[in-house]
Automatic annotation (TrEMBL), chain A:
This is ABC transporter permease. The keyword Transmembrane applies. The chain crosses the membrane at residues 12-31, 98-121, 133-153, 173-192, 271-292. It comes from Streptomyces edwardsiae. Pfam families: BPD_transp_1.
Automatic annotation (TrEMBL), chain D:
Residues 11-261 form the ABC transporter domain. Belongs to the ABC transporter superfamily. The keyword Flavoprotein does not apply. SUPFAM superfamilies: P-loop containing nucleoside triphosphate hydrolases. This is ABC transporter ATP-binding protein. It is a peripheral membrane protein. It comes from Streptomyces edwardsiae. NCBIfam families: oligo_HPY (TIGR01727).
Length: 309, 530, 325, 331
């Protein structure tokens, strides 16, 4: 296991560098940010001065070299927009997204396992049909639409929840998490249901029933753990999506997360922040992938055995 | 004897249903329980009548006073945290004393300012001419690359000296008749402020001081008790930000904020909103260097094709005024005589036909560039303009851009090899003088202009050297000239902002509200509430 | 005595589907007819496809025709065919725009899904079959794409290159490749050690053929299911890009763009944003339902589920009734 | 119809009917099957694929797939008709009274649980033993079925065992609670010949030791000959002949049984093609109204087309469903 982990971590280093380099070059393709940061009436001289101060007058390879040298000293640069250190901004924003994604996935997975198992228990029953239809619909609602509706209905009309924001009790979490939740939940219910139906019709389930096992024992003791592999994979992918893409929710509800930071820094050509943010999410995503692999190994002894090979 | 084992024993079935029902009920209860538990105060805090809660579109990138000409920064900083020497009345355009009690022009290039006494900074230090000199130096002459430097002063450096505690002398390199107006953009900070680097949280002489900045969440201000002027009504203020206009509107409806900026025109009918002219003017800038836009008949046809009233009523919520010039009312140089061009499709088509007959390639594709988020309904407006231009026989494609991309089209050096461009621009004349407009947009080599005429250039230069009524008339006349002989712009509308105001407060927005929202002017609706 | 198999014994028998399977699979439309939701889904989906393919021929320029005086008219029967679903803020017929947008939406979603499906599966199957270094290289490439912010690519493509539906397709396709890559790699890696693959290998079959003839057919149903889910994802992503202003650009129109542009009128003119949203939901739900059905219908070991009479399907289950607590 | 015996049978199946839903409609997969078996005896259900023998077994233990439905008959153990019991009552019988072994031990064992836990599970379910006690019991059972180093191996997972070992584990699990009746559904089909013999011996030993009734489902005549006491030959969902193995195999009273026995290589001459029963069994949806075997029967006559023969006694403890079983007896 440890060998496996070490190998995985080492093999993630090269792709990580690729991501950083890719972002570096792509960002610079979007043009010089000078215009955005100087008043429209700034003179050519002022522009040149600003460019030189920020190092944008150098060739791209030279800029890259400077960036890498600084990065090696854990200095990821300063934000053009706010003048703060990029590292600081990213470290401020990241926990917000991580918490959102964590709570969302926790709820999505537990809810989906519950509903999906119940649905799989009696395929084609009313419960199954309702659960399937609802989950499919949930998975296909545009999230920003759901968010705006949520604000209007629960925030304003019913006056149950705050419209937006991060400050306050647990109630501020409800709408953002609900918005983030619908799609992963919808997808996961279908995945859980699918793999549970397959697991419940497997011969070992018949044998378990032949031993007189109760339904609870059959579902949770036997079927669920076998059904968990595809669920884990999909849940991993969905979490990656959340880490990278809670932009909409963060934008609408005013949560200062990494997604919002990223889109802002893209639109504002704030390269240092963008690079730092991408590096942070990329590291997280790599870690997440490794975590999923470890979970696979933990739940399935066959994978565990195959690992050292 | 036959029976079916698949019909479920009734007990089992019922229990199963009961389980489902319990689960469902539990979920609902849990959800509503969470909801009720804290009920809904939101970021801006509970309405306590003592905190003024303002919701902006975005978090201010910084509160550095020398960046106050950035809208996002200025709206919080200006006149709330820091103050300039001179302030401009947004309605009349007149200059009023603020930290300076008066000023005099000694000669062409030298001005003296008298400092107000008894003013202290929020850190307790007294305000003197030394501080004023420091602040001007820091903003205009330093290497900080302050936004205000580029915005109002260009390359020019100022020589500033504090002759005594109460007297300041400013010397310009060139004669500058509007120096006091320019200085109204320089916010005064204490001389202890870092001169080599920008600060994120400033100290000023304003009625409010920064209490805390929760990054990403809120900025809290508290009343500065030793403020030299009248004490504002609200002891505390809190800024939050939401980029979605419907959420900002919802926060007003819900009572989560007292003031919300930049609402969508859709909300205009609510009685919690108030519209105000914001000195922004929209227009299509036609690139006169490229066929077919190089033909004045085609440019005039475009001007005639635009249905200003239709666009304003349908897309801008009826909040804007049709425009015939770039300079809005209330700004020196605005010409009352100019009428917006009425739509005349027939005449426009005739002009195009005429041009086509003379060999102008009117079917060459024109790119209509507009910026996402420039104003509410911008992409619909672009589509409407495209449709109206196509109706008179032009070939137009829309390209929506982000700010950075749009700036490449807007600013010199203009992009090459992109064909004829019709750029949707929105020009805000914060400064109140047409010179800020003409030197940028009308000079043939102006930073935001594509072409012009020598005649117009000459008139602009002449007008800039004048002052008083002569200045007004010279600028007003040259605006007519642009419409007659240049037609670089098909003007669209003088825009309005829409502010959401809670019924619990009273506030009169003015044309500067978008850049400078004076919290001290906000009062509770019912007297004696606080 | 060595082998005393019964003469007609052709394998083991314990599942109920053996008997009917022998007769050959039942006609697919018969099966479809029996599953009412799947049948409805099929009808909806074919309708959407037909509209997307031929709708533009009938509506002429109605989707573009503006009338600022007729802005935001509510759906009504009185305004002729094009007024049935009301008008948008520019006075254009929402019905005509929905039809126009159907074509754009599908011409973005379908090629994007197909591209990522084909490229991702091809690489994934190849990597999974060969294993070793090729496998780990492919997986790391997937990691790179996954952790790359697709928003950045979208912005670059949109603002640096010219914005077009094709570019959106490319962005979405590239962003989804890892999903197929990982799925197909897993399938291929599992299948490569199976007996029939070993057998093919010993006969010297080139690996390309083994992948094509032995591995692909088995992995395909799973990949197609993923593709259907992705179809939904791609439509929603396109819509989100529109929300951020970096999706399909006017005057092109997609359902996602309609939802995004109309959301500010949610309270005053619901039809502008709700109807295209409904179109997205209906299409994706239909696709998902149909995919679930097709998956069962093409799997001989599952097909029997579809053959259950309606009333019994409601009552019985994969788990017999005595299992119900 | 029951065997004539003084002691009560451990399992008594009477007139069992199972309907199966298919795309082309509902068909009868098991049609009035009856048999019974006493403790210590082995009954073989013999037949080709699709003849309904496995479905019979699954309906006895209540594990039918939902596409199939028991529409009539009775399955009696310990004097109770299991088909009429509630789910919970039925679960009480599963394990201590009725038990089953499947053919494919790899899929029949839960791949993600250590085998020790799976084998100990019946003790936890029915006897309420602690995890540790159940584990000890499991190790005992593993020792009994011949797993080497059971204490270590109890922690292993199914995929780490060979096919024969897995089958032993499955059997250990099935006999854990000394059931009255053990149903073995083709328990050796997937195994090597040598391993087959070991497994059959293990089954026999366990049966003797625990005095179980065994229902052995198979298509293998040799297994029946060596292992079973009684045999019920099934064809197209019905029992066509029943009796002791010795009597039925030495003198079949049904043309189908005879055809089967003739096709065994031992009786054929070298170099000649094996005589086989011509044709194939009828589709379940097209079972003829008369005798089910009429299409392949060498003796078919008019009566066979119009009238279905019922199972009737052809000897002391045997019966056959043929109008002309006496003719066969004369051959």
């Amino acid at each position: 296991m440890i060998i496996f982990l070490r190998k995985r971590i080492l093999s993630s280093a090269v792709p990580l560098v690729c991501v950083v380099l890719g972002v570096f070059f792509l960002a610079r393709m979007t043009g010089n940010p000078v215009d955005l940061y100087l008043p429209l009436s700034a003179t050519a001289e002022q522009r040149a001065e600003f460019s030189a101060a920020q190092g944008f007058d150098l060739s791209v390879p030279a800029q890259l070299w400077n960036y890498l040298v600084d990065a090696a000293h854990l200095d990821f640069g300063t934000s053009l927009r706010t003048g703060q250190s990029a590292t600081e901004m990213v470290l401020d924003a990241f926990p917000v997204t991580l918490q959102l994604a964590g709570v969302t996935m926790l709820l999505a997975i537990s809810g989906a396992v519950l509903i999906g198992s119940l649905a799989a228990y009696r395929p084609n029953s009313l419960m199954d049909r309702v659960a399937s239809l609802l989950s499919m619909t949930a998975a296909s609602i545009p999230d920003f639409w759901f968010a705006v509706m949520g604000v209007l209905v629960f925030g304003v009309s019913l006056d149950l929840l705050p419209t937006s924001g991060t400050l306050g009790g647990p109630e501020v979490w409800v709408l953002p998490v609900a918005t983030l939740l619908i799609r992963p939940f919808g997808v996961l219910v279908q995945v859980v249901r699918g793999s549970m139906v397959a697991a419940l019709s497997a011969p070992y389930v018949k044998i378990a029933r032949a031993k007189g096992a109760t339904p609870r024992r059959v579902i949770f003791g036997h079927a669920l753990r076998n059904a968990v592999t595809p669920v884990l994979t999909v849940a991993g992918d969905l979490t990656v999506g959340l880490v990278n893409g809670a932009v909409i929710v963060e934008t609408i509800f005013g949560w200062p997360g990494i997604g919002k930071l990223m889109i802002d820094s893209i639109l504002q050509r704030d390269f240092a922040v963008l690079q730092a943010a991408v590096l942070m999410t990329a590291v997280t995503i790599f870690a997440l992938n490794i975590l999923v692999d470890v979970c696979h190994a933990l739940t399935d002894p066959r994978v565990r055995q195959a690992v050292p090979a | 004897m036959k029976f079916s084992v698949s019909s479920t024993p009734p007990t089992g079935r019922r229990r199963y249903r009961a389980t489902t029902a319990t689960l469902l009920a539990g979920t609902v209860l849990l959800a509503s329980g969470c909801a009720v538990a804290g009920s809904a105060a939101g970021d801006a805090g509970r309405a306590d009548g003592r905190t003024l809660r303002v919701v902006l579109t975005q978090e201010p990138p910084t509160l550095e006073p020398c960046e106050a000409s950035l809208t996002g920064t200025g709206v919080v900083v200006r006149s709330n945290i820091t103050e300039p020497l001179v302030e401009r009345d947004p309605d009349s355009g007149e200059l009023h004393p603020l930290l300076a009690t008066g000023w005099k022009q000694r000669d062409d290039r030298t001005w003296t300012f008298d400092m107000r006494e008894g003013v202290t900074f929020q850190n307790g230090e007294p305000f003197t001419a030394e501080d004023a000199a420091f602040s001007i130096d820091r903003a205009v002459n330093s290497d900080l690359a302050c936004n205000v430097e580029g915005y109002v002063f260009g390359d020019e450096d100022l020589k500033v000296t504090a002759e005594s505690d109460t007297r300041l002398t400013v010397t310009t390199e060139q004669p500058d008749p509007i120096l006091p107006l320019r200085l109204s953009f320089v916010e005064i900070v204490p001389r202890t402020t870092n001169a080599d680097a920008k600060v994120r949280i400033p100290v000023g002489t304003g009625p409010y001081a920064v209490a805390s900045w929760q990054p990403g969440a809120a900025i809290n201000l508290s009343r500065y008790d030793d403020y030299w002027g009248d004490a504002p009504d609200f002891p505390r203020a809190r800024y939050v930000w939401r980029s979605d206009a419907s959420v900002r509107a919802a926060m007003i409806d819900k009572g989560e904020a007292e003031i919300a900026v930049a609402l969508d025109p859709v909300e205009a009918e609510k009685d919690t909103t108030v519209a105000f002219p914001n000195n922004e003017t929209t227009a299509l800038r036609l690139d006169g260097r490229e066929a077919p836009l190089d033909d004045i008949r085609v440019r005039r046809a475009v001007d005639l094709a635009v249905d200003r009233d239709g666009i304003i009523d349908a897309l801008l919520g009826g909040l804007a005024e049709p425009a015939g010039q770039l300079v809005p009312p209330g700004v020196v140089g605005h010409n009352e005589e100019i009428e917006p061009t009425p739509q005349n499709v027939k005449e426009a088509t005739a002009l195009i036909d005429e041009a086509e007959a003379d060999g102008v390639p009117v079917d060459r594709q024109i790119t209509l560039v507009a910026r996402n988020g420039m104003f509410a309904g911008v992409s619909e407006t672009a589509e409407a303009l495209q449709y109206q231009m196509q109706k008179i026989g032009l070939n137009v494609k829309v390209r929506m851009a982000d700010t950075a991309t749009q700036l490449q089209y807007q600013l010199r050096p203009l992009p090459e090899d992109v064909g004829p461009i019709a750029l949707l621009i929105m020009h805000g004349n914060q400064a109140g003088d047409a010179a800020f407009t003409t030197s940028q947009y009308l000079l043939s080599d102006g930073p935001q202009s594509t072409f012009g005429t020598e005649e117009l250039d000459r008139r602009i230069a002449d007008a800039g050297a004048l002052s008083g009524d002569q200045r007004q008339k010279a600028f007003a006349d040259l605006l007519v000239d642009q419409n007659r002989s240049v037609v670089q712009y098909a003007h669209l509308a003088h825009m309005s902002g829409l502010l959401g105001l809670s019924p619990s407060i009273r506030y009169e927005p003015n044309s500067a509200t978008g850049d400078e929202m004076r919290l001290a002017e906000v009062s509770p609706a019912k007297a004696g509430q606080h | 005595m060595t082998t005393e198999e019964l003469p007609a014994a052709d394998g083991r028998e314990d599942s109920p589907q053996t008997a009917p399977a022998r007769k050959g699979p039942p006609r697919w439309w018969l099966l479809l007819g029996r599953d009412r939701p799947a049948a409805v889904a099929a009808v909806v989906l074919s309708l959407v496809v037909l509209v997307a393919l031929f709708g533009r021929l009938f509506i002429g320029d109605h989707a573009q025709r503006q009338n600022l005086d007729a802005s935001l008219r509510a759906p009504s029967l009185g305004d002729g065919f094009y007024g049935l679903l009301g008008t948008d803020v520019l006075g254009r017929s929402v019905l005509a725009r929905l039809i126009d947008a159907a074509a754009t939406t599908l011409s973005v979603a379908v090629p994007a899904v197909l591209c990522s499906l084909v490229i991702g599966s091809a690489i994934g199957l190849w990597a999974g079959y060969h294993g070793g270094r090729r496998e780990s290289v492919a997986m790391r490439v997937a990691d790179i794409i996954l952790s790359f912010p697709s928003l950045l690519i979208a912005v670059v493509v949109l603002y640096v290159f010219s914005p077009s539906a094709l570019n959106i397709v490319l962005i979405l396709a590239v962003a989804r490749i890892p999903v197929y890559l990982r799925t197909s790699r897993a399938e291929a890696a599992e299948l490569r050690s199976r007996l029939f693959v070993d057998a093919a290998r010993t006969f010297g079959t080139p690996s390309r053929h083994i992948i094509q003839r032995h591995i692909l057919p088995i992995a395909l149903p799973t990949l197609l299911t993923v593709a259907t889910l992705d179809f939904c994802f791609v439509m929603l992503t396109e819509s989100s890009l529109s929300f951020l202003g970096i999706g399909i650009q006017p005057p092109d129109v997609s359902w996602g763009l309609m939802v995004a542009q109309g959301r500010q009128y949610l309270q005053t003119a619901w039809w502008i944003t709700v109807l295209p949203g409904l179109a997205i939901v209906l299409t994706t739900v239909s696709a998902t339902v149909l995919a679930a059905w097709a998956r069962i219908a093409t799997d001989p070991a599952q097909r029997w589920r579809l053959t259950l009479p309606r009333k019994r399907r409601g009552a019985s289950a994969a788990v017999p009734p005595e299992m119900i607590p | 119809m029951t065997t004539t015996s003084a002691t009560d049978p451990a399992l008594d199946v009477e007139g069992l009917c199972v309907d199966l839903s298919t795309a082309s409609g509902t068909v009868r997969a098991v049609d009035g099957v009856s048999f019974s078996v006493r403790r210590g005896r082995t009954l073989a259900l013999l037949g080709e694929s699709g003849c309904g023998k496995s479905m019979t077994a699954l309906s006895v233990v209540g594990l039918l797939d939902p596409a199939a439905e028991v529409t009539g008959g009775a399955v009696r153990v310990r004097g109770e008709d299991t088909l009429r019991l509630s789910a919970a009552e039925r679960r009480k019988l599963a394990g201590p009274v009725l038990s089953i072994v499947f053919q494919d031990a790899l899929t029949a064992l839960n791949p993600v649980q250590p085998v020790g836990r799976q084998i100990g599970e019946p003790f936890r379910i029915h006897r309420g033993l602690s995890r540790r006690e159940a584990r000890e019991k499991a190790i005992e059972l593993m020792t009994r079925v011949g797993i080497p180093e059971p204490r270590q191996r109890a922690k292993s997972y199914p995929h780490q065992f060979s096919g024969g070992m897995r089958q032993r584990l499955l059997i250990a699990m099935a006999v854990a609670l000394d059931p009255d009746v053990l149903i073995a559904d083709e328990p050796t089909t997937a195994l090597d010949v040598t391993v087959q013999a070991q497994i059959m011996r293990l089954l026999r030993d366990l049966q003797d030791e625990r005095d179980m009734a065994v229902v052995l489902i198979t298509h293998d005549l040799a297994v029946v000959a060596q292992r079973a006491d009684d045999v019920a030959v099934m064809y197209a969902g019905t029992v066509v002949e029943q009796g002791t193995v010795r009597e039925v195999f030495s003198a079949p009273r049904h043309p189908y049984t005879r055809g089967l026995l003739d096709s065994v290589p031992e009786d054929a001459e070298r170099g000649q093609p094996l005589p086989a029963v011509p044709g194939s069994p009828p589709e379940l949806s097209a079972v003829p109204s008369g005798c089910v075997f009429q299409a392949r029967c060498p003796l078919v006559r008019e009566r066979c087309v119009s009238e279905r023969p019922v199972l009737r006694a052809t000897g002391d403890a045997r019966s056959a469903a043929c109008h002309f079983s006496e003719e066969l007896a004369r051959d």
